[in-house]
Amino acid sequence: MSMTPVNNTYGVPEPFIWNDSFAVFYENLDNEHKQLFQAVFALANENSEGSIKNLLDVTVNHFNDEEGMMVKNNYASYKDHKKMHDNFVAVLKSLKTSDVNEKILNWAKDWLVEHIKTTDFKYKGLLG
After folding, report:
1. What residue stretches are annotated with the Hemerythrin-like domain (predicted)?
2. Known binder of ligand: residue 85?
C-alpha cells in the first residue's frame, strides 16, 4: 500500500464532519463530499469489510461524477486531478480490516481535507 504523505495545512475537523468551509458550490459534489466524510467517520467507528466497501463505493462514485464534470467542461487540470484520485482509490482498494488503524484513518482524513481545500477549490466556478 503506497500512501503518499499528506501535508495538511488546514487541520482536520473534530468530529470529522463536512462543514461549509469545504463547499465547492456544486450541490451534487458538496453532497458527495459530505458522504465521503461520513464514510471515513463510519470506518473509524466500525472497522469492517462493509465499512471499507462503503468508503470505496462512495469515493469511486464521487470521483466519477467530479471527473465527468471536468471532462465535460474541458477542465485544464483534469489529468493531474484524476491521477490523485486514482492513487487514493488504489490505497482504498488494497485495504483490509487488518490494515485499518489510526495511521491509515488519519491519512485518509488529511488527504480528503487537503484535496478538497487545495485541489478541488481550484475548479470552483469552472465546471458549469
Report:
1. 25-126
2. yes
Calculate the average pLDDT of the chain: 95
Residue 62 annotated as binding?
Answer: yes
Q: Given this model, what pLDDT does residue 1 score?
A: 64
On whether residue 1 sits in a domain, the answer given is no
Share of the chain above pLDDT 70, in %: 98
The CATH number of the domain where 107 resides is what? 1.20.120.50
Scanning the structure block, which residue is given the C-alpha cell 471532462?
71
Number of separate domains in the chain: 1
> What residues have CB less than 8 Å from 95, skipping those under 6 apart?
1, 52, 56, 104
* 20 labeled part of a ligand binding site: no
- Domain carrying residue 100: 29-123
Flag whether 30 is marked binding: no
Q: Is 102 annotated as a binding residue?
A: no
Whole-model pTM: value is 0.94
27 is in an annotated binding site: no
81 annotated ligand-binding residue: yes
Please classify residue 9 by burial: count the beta carbons closer than 10 Å to its beta carbon, then call 0-12 exposed, 13-18 middle and 19+ buried.
Answer: exposed
